[in-house]
Automatic annotation (TrEMBL):
Transmembrane segments: none annotated. The keyword Nucleus does not apply. It comes from Roseicitreum antarcticum. This is Amino acid ABC transporter ATP-binding protein, PAAT family. It holds the Pfam family ABC_tran.
Length: 245
């Protein structure tokens, strides 16, 4: 195991015009660790998550993946995004493609796998998330929970070093949330490094190793998840948790 963290952010600032959205964020996620980001809407947590694989470019600061600086402008962004998977609130699946084709696409165009290799790897990833019987279905034939599991399989098939989850259950009906959280729980158990924006307290209590609380572009509290949930030290953390409960 490398001595370097799997993910490290150093002094991340992000401006949108004159709006200072992130104000010098530092964070470190070890190999196999699950880090959760929490905070009110507009606090900067999703923007920070997107900076970790350069969907958003930090205005200042560095992001390192497994010891390598990825915010250098000479770094191949496509390779970064292949190595650091991303699962969004909405599933971003191509409606004209089957589940298998959606998952295989990145393997063909980014990893440069043959079509037969990509299809085999895609089928394996879909089986891993419990969708072996749905390979030939199009997104409109799948439930929201199933579509989100296809999106997770799409990341898994690329064999990423880590996966980022941006409120992956927020668009789902309540009865579908558990099937996505079960897949994420299994990934954590297998040692996948994950950074998760989520307000699913019960899930985070069981799975997340550390909890980082954002407010107005700053980290106001961080620590072991159970400690932060049960004994928050910052008033903004206490206010936010009260609102959730």
């Amino acid at each position: 195991m490398s001595a370097a963290p799997m993910i490290e952010a150093r002094g991340i600032h992000k401006y949108f015009g004159s709006m200072h959205v992130l104000r010098g964020i530092d964070a470190s996620v070890a190999h196999g660790e699950v880090a959760a980001l929490m905070g009110s809407s507009g606090s900067g947590k999703s923007t920070f998550l997107r900076c970790l694989n350069r969907i958003e470019e930090p205005t200042e600061g560095e992001v390192l993946i497994d010891g390598s600086i990825i915010t250098n402008m000479r770094t191949d962004v496509n390779r970064v995004r292949a190595d650091i998977g991303m699962v969004f609130q909405d599933y971003n699946l191509f409606p004209h493609m089957t589940a298998l084709e959606n998952v295989a696409l990145g393997l063909i165009h980014v990893r440069k796998r043959s079509r037969s290799e990509a299809r085999d790897a895609a089928a394996s990833a879909l089986e891993q998330v419990g969708l072996a019987d749905h390979l030939t279905k199009h997104p409109q034939q799948l439930s929201g929970g199933q579509q989100q599991r296809v999106a997770i399989a799409r990341s898994l098939a690329m064999q990423p070093k880590a996966i980022l989850f941006d409120e992956p259950t927020s668009a789902l009906d309540p009865e579908m949330v558990h099937e996505v959280l079960d897949v994420m729980r299994a990934l954590a158990g297998e040692g996948m490094t994950m950074v998760v924006v989520s307000h699913e307290i019960g899930f985070l209590r069981k799975v997340a190793d550390q909890l980082i609380v954002f407010d107005a572009g700053l980290v106001v509290e961080r620590g072991p998840t159970v400690r932060v949930l049960d004994e928050p030290e910052h008033e903004r953390t206490r206010e936010f948790l009260r609102a959730l409960r």
